[in-house]
Amino acid sequence: MAALATAADFRSDRSSDSRPAYCPPDVEQLGRATWTFLHTTAAYYPDRPTSWQRANMLNLLHSLPVLYPCSHCASHLGETLRINPPDVSGRVALSRWLCERHNEVNERLGKDKFNCAKTDERWKDGPSDGSCD
User: pLDDT tens digit string along 36-79?
Assistant: First the structure.
C-alpha cells in the first residue's frame, strides 16, 4: 500500500477545499482531523486517570508512528515521542503536551502558533460568548 504522502508531498500549494468531498483525504485534511481528534480526546481525558486510562492513552499515541498513513508525519511523530515523551498524568498536562507538539508542527509549516492557555476553550468548552452552544 502506498503511503498517503511523502516528504516531497508534505507541503502542497493546492487547496484541500478544491477536491471533491468524495475523494480520500489528503495529508492536510488528515492532519486537521487527527489533531482535532487528539486535542478533543485530551480535553475529555480525566484529571486523575487510572493506570488503565494512562496506559491506553500511551498506547494510542505510540500507535500513531506505526499506523499513521502519512509516512513523513509518522516518522517525525515517532522521533518527537522519543525526545519528548507524552505526559498522560492528567487532562491539563496531556492537553498542554499535545498543544506544544502541535505548535512545533505549526512552526515547521510556517503556520501561526496556538495559545496553549486556550486549549479548553478551543477543544472542550467553546468561547464564553456561547456561540458554540
Answer: 999 999 999 999 999 999 999 999 999 999 999 999 999 999 99
Q: Note the pTM of the prediction, 2 decimals.
A: 0.83
Domains and CATH numbers, the chain: 25-124 (1.20.120.310)
All three cell numbers of 54: 494512562
- Long-range (24+ apart) CB contacts under 8 A made by 52-60 are 54/88, 54/89, 57/86, 57/88, 57/94, 58/86, 58/88
DSSP secondary structure letters along 29-85: HHHHHHHHHHHHHHHTS-SS--HHHHHHHHHHHHHHHHH-SBHHHHHHHHHHHHHS-
